[in-house]
Amino acid sequence: MTQDNGSNLLKATNEDTSGPFFPIYFQDESLEDLTVLGPGIVGAPSGQHIILCGRVLDRHGNLANGVLMEFWQANAKGIYNSPANLGHPDLDSWFNGYGRLRSASGEYKFCTIMPGASDSRAPNITITLFSDGISRIVTQVFFEGHKANETDPVLKSLDTDDQARLIARHGGQTDGGAEIYLLDIVMAGVNETPFFDDFES
Amino acid sequence: MTQFGRQLGIGPTDNTSDQRTPRKPLRLIPSVARESFVPVVPARYVIRTHEWDMTRIAPGRPRGDGTPIEVTGTLRNENGTPIRDALIEIWNANHHGRYRHVEDASGLQLDENFFGMGRVVTDEDGNYRFWTISPGAYLARPDIGRWRPKHIHLSISGGSARLITQMYFPNEPNNASDPMAILMGDGFENNIGKTYETSDLDVDEGYRFDIVVGGRNATFFE
Ligand SMILES: [Fe+3]
User: Fold this and answer.
1) Which of A91, A133, B136, B159 is the most buried (most CB within 10 A)?
2) Reported ipTM
3) Do A98 and B42 touch (CB under 8 A)?
């Protein structure tokens, strides 16, 4: 195997664009609505139902068709279902916190529960975007009206314009009682959403 | 204070890359927030047992047009530890360069014996294997005559490992002009399958494609 010079680490395989044809066939509805366990199953995760929705836009303000979106969040008590939290008393057995959808048009709608605040963090959902023309880009969305937004370390690392680009607007309630939050993600150009890098590189 | 990471490159001659690549440098994640950015994909996927053999639509059916190939490899993290039970979702164009996807408007020929989508799971030692038909190259930019070289798309999810990549083929004429290959630079070598003998197998060509999940895709839980 190839190795980095001066390091014992293996050289990572390059990411590549997903292209325009990520198979719709691989779609899994149970990952698009995390409030529902599955057909005919009694039980549900605890927490306030929310719908996070909006558009993914390109540099010209056009909808970015064919995007694959992945979501990652803590449960209502602010605990992530990660190996680090194995056995944590506040894990929710009915909530994994990972969602995925592919949008043909570039408009998206993700049904989930409001994540809890954890440690020093404001409630947030990590969004990963894959699409034609790019490799993975990652950002994090916050929710209008949360006091913890003012002290969140990710928001605080950004200037005020960029902060506003990551805070989903409250957009009322559905008949079923889910709170609606709206956020457009702008991949490039004017009003570009801030995206994040995992490591110094 | 905003700290900046990489500036993403735009794939030359790739319109979509130009439209969708962020122009501002990426922001570095404050270290206290790093953990929150690493998803853990639950292993709740459904896979049909015959999906590893994409050379035919279902067991007992005729094979698609073109050259049947095997692709095998090992999935590891940067430390060399195999990643077991990871889901690999695979899709590739048929022999004529056409995807069986409702949004593929190329007009190229569909193959009634080729589906072009499959899923496999890595074994205890991180190994995976699938058969497919060697994909055709396709004309991605008819206006400037730029082709996409033969490639197979692979999406890998396992625990906190997450990667979407493509396997390319050695000595293909269109490799050098591919926008993604240009962005990868010398690293492109890593994304080319390495041929091996398959005289003992019911396929014509074999490609070894070892995958290392790391860098930005790293999992620091495992
Ligand atoms: Fe492709």
Assistant:
1) A133
2) 0.95
3) yes
